[in-house]
Design goal:
The chain has 679 residues and is mainly alpha-helical. Helices cover 60% and strands 4% of the residues. The protein has 30 helices and seven strands. The protein has helices spanning 47-58, 76-89, 104-111, 127-139, 157-163, 168-173, 187-202, 218-230, 241-256, 263-276, 281-286, 295-308, 326-340, 343-347, 351-364, 373-381, 383-393, 401-414, 417-426, 435-445, 455-473, 477-492, 499-518, 522-543, 551-593, 597-631, 634-640, 645-652, 656-662, 666-669; strands at residues 12-13, 19-20, 63-69, 93-97, 116-120, 146-152, 179-180. It has a seven-stranded mixed beta sheet with strand order 2-1-4-5-6-3-7, sandwiched between helices. The longest helix has 43 residues, at 551-593. 46% of the residues are buried. Mean pLDDT is 77; it is low at 1-26, 313-318, 579-587, 629-664 and 673-679.
Length: 679
């Protein structure tokens, strides 16, 4: 195994435990000096976070996972690289997991007795690969320690999906609290440190410290320092420091370009690499800038880009990396989008290129709202891919609202019922940021409830309930109540001897409980919640003697459902108890003014007894929910599941659509309850 290189170079994890390093070029483009791996600005300012990560690294656990999240440019990569350098000093093999590296290689290295720290950057962009890595780590037994450090811009729904994976071992790995990187405590000090480093590296005078700076991240402070060291481009205003650096970057591209490549070619190739990824030769040939040009010019442009932005991984066919920092490439795409995306280009994109384009566009939209047309262009050529992949990518966006709105428009224009159903199932109806897209998907997917207990009808009932959850999350409580109560009435009209009907009715009553509570109707909410609890208990009692395949798993789900209903019912019951007390005191005051002290005392006593009974029931429900939630038996269930999920469905005679209707996820089905309901 090769000796790990020192700090200041980007470490890339390989399966054999060796490392690859990117060394700085002799003549760097302006953007390169901003990159964390070159270490031109010494590590500083994150000492507390580093100490917490070192404690996590040195803990006795065999395997552990930690998330560091924050907006782009807040120092996640720089912090991870410093941790990796210190880990290597302590004998660990540490580095970033390159694209294409089999995740099992991490486990194989640990099994050979080598302690491994693997860093996964942009974890939210590929949650499936992260999940595969975590499952491999969770399944491994014995061997040396493994640490997985996830870097992401957000800790949103993508992480929630991983944490609620059916494998409890994966969920256990994610129990450590995430580490959020916030803004700059001293922006001027960060600017000064960067200005000193850049001026020394470039051999230029150090600029004077600005009187004040409104930079929100280390990257912005560093970019401002670099732009001041380089000096302004003629005709350019002060503006965004990243845009000022981008102007210098474009000048560098022109100086470094080979003969035959003009500014339009250069800007188009960099934008295409950023938007579609490195393997974009076919796309380049289709760009307007290269129309009618010989193939040799396309190859020359790719060779120039590979020299400027070295390939991200060995074995990648020499495909160049996109410009970094990512923010710089995204801003360049926003400025040149019309040159690299039209209907003709969209038609030849692969599914992977569409997925990457959606991610880049989703990230830049909050800063560049004029880029909205891009989603419509992609959707015309690849409607299903755009809708399904776009909805999935929303989980990893720090600000998903702009992309969610565009996807909703695309869905109404292009989606069929089946695609809309998949979109609805991929979203969390209680996330207010994406609830409008969920509502649009449900509107396209659902049909009228015609009665009957068929799987399709019950699936539609489940979707209507999700619509109620979404409406409540948007603050439209009265509309949510109407939808939830209509589904309750529909399910009451079905034969109650079917277990599936009662399970779904209990869910509908729990949703109605939440919606009524948000509408301020606490007593009806408490009644709906307690009815749901009663149904859940009946279901559990019937499952106690079940012996059919998969019954243990279903019983575990039923226990979790009961815990959820218990907890939700306790909130309006507690608030109703408070209202009863106030009402009793008011009545007592009125009766006292009428000089009927005896009746006033009776009213107060009755109110106190009702309040005490409500509070006792609420506390009992909540205590039972907590006990059940800690005791539900997923590990036991997993051990008793038949080898084939399809076989279990066949033996239980349950249609896969019905499995979707009955799928339960406490986070997915919970509606935020106001704080005063928890008193």
């Amino acid at each position: 195994m090769s000796r790990p290189p020192r700090d200041g170079l980007v470490m890339s994890f390989r399966g054999d435990g060796s490392y690859a390093a990117e060394a700085p070029r002799r003549e760097l483009p302006p953007s390169a000096v901003l990159r964390a791996e070159y270490g031109l600005v010494p590590f500083a300012g994150r000492d507390a976070e580093l100490e917490r990560l070192l404690a996590w690294l040195r803990a006795p656990d065999r395997a552990a996972v930690r998330l560091v999240h924050g907006p782009g440019g807040h120092g996640k990569s720089r912090l991870a690289m410093r941790l990796a350098a210190l880990a290597r000093d302590e004998g660990w093999h540490a580095g970033a997991l390159r694209p294409g590296t089999p995740v099992r290689d991490v486990v194989r290295l640990a099994a050979a007795g080598v302690a491994v720290l693997v860093v996964v950057d942009d974890a939210e962009a590929d949650p499936d690969r992260v999940l595969a890595l975590l499952r491999a780590v969770a399944e491994a037994t014995g061997g040396a320690a493994v640490r997985v450090l996830l870097l992401a811009r957000t800790d949103g729904a993508w992480l929630r999906v991983l944490a609620e994976d059916a494998d409890d071992r994966v969920a256990a790995l994610l129990r450590a609290p995430s580490l959020r990187l916030t803004g700059l405590p001293d922006p001027r000090r960060e600017y000064d440190r960067a200005a000193v480093a850049f001026a020394a590296h470039l051999g230029r005078p150090r600029p004077a410290s600005p009187a004040a700076g409104s930079w929100e991240s280390p990257l912005e402070a560093h970019a401002a320092a670099l732009a001041d060291v380089l000096g302004d481009v003629p005709g350019a205003g002060p503006g965004d420091p990243l845009l000022r650096v981008l102007q210098h970057e474009r000048r560098y591209w022109r100086r470094a370009a080979p003969p035959g490549l003009g500014p339009a070619h250069l800007e188009a190739v960099v934008a295409a690499l950023t938007l579609y990824g490195g393997d974009a030769s076919a796309v380049l040939a289709a760009l307007p800038a290269f129309a009618g040009e010989p193939a040799a010019l396309v190859h020359r442009a790719l060779a120039w880009a590979a020299e400027l932005f070295p390939p991200a991984a060995e074995g990648g066919g020499g495909a160049p990396h996109a410009p970094r920092p990512d923010r710089l490439g995204e801003d360049h795409v926003a400025a040149t989008l019309d040159a690299v995306l039209d209907d003709g280009v969209a038609a030849i994109l692969t599914e992977g290129q569409v997925r990457r384009a959606l991610l880049v566009i989703g990230r830049l939209l909050p800063r560049h709202p004029a880029a909205t047309r891009a989603v419509a262009v992609l959707a015309r050529a690849h409607p299903r891919t755009v809708l399904l992949e776009g909805a999935r990518l929303l989980r990893g966006l720090a600000r998903p609202e702009p992309m969610a709105g565009l996807l909703a428009a695309a869905l109404e224009a292009h989606a069929d019922g089946a695609t809309a159903l998949e979109v609805a199932r991929s979203l969390w109806p209680n996330d207010a940021r994406t609830a409008p897209l969920h509502a649009a998907a449900v509107a396209v997917a659902v049909g009228p409830l015609r009665g009957g207990t068929g799987p399709e009808q019950l699936t539609l009932a489940g979707l209507h309930l999700e619509a109620a959850v979404g409406l409540a999350s948007l603050g439209r409580a009265r509309e949510a109540v109407a939808v939830a109560e209509s589904i309750v009435a529909y399910l009451r009209g079905l034969p109650q001897e079917y277990l599936v009907v009662r399970r779904l009715l209990a869910r509908a009553l729990t949703v109605a409980c939440d919606c009524l509570a948000l509408a301020g109707l606490d007593r009806p909410a408490a009644e709906a919640g307690e009815e749901a609890v009663g149904l859940r208990r009946q279901v559990l009692a019937e499952l106690a003697g079940a012996t059919w395949p998969g019954h243990v798993w279903v019983r575990g789900m039923a226990e979790q459902e009961l815990a959820h209903s218990l907890a939700r019912a306790s909130y309006p019951l507690r608030r109703a108890a408070g209202e009863t007390r106030v009402l009793g005191e008011t009545r007592a005051a009125d009766e006292t003014r009428a000089a009927d002290e005896t009746r006033a005392a009776d009213e107060t006593r009755a109110a106190d007894e009702t309040r005490a009974a409500d509070e006792t029931r609420a506390a009992a429900l909540l205590d039972e929910a907590i006990a059940l939630d800690g005791a539900h038996r997923f590990a036991e269930a997993a051990a008793q599941l038949p080898p084939s999920g399809a076989q279990a469905r066949e033996q239980r005679a349950v249609n896969p659509l019905l499995d979707e209707a009955l799928r339960f996820d406490a986070g997915r089905w919970s509606i935020a309850v106001p704080a005063d309901a928890r008193r």
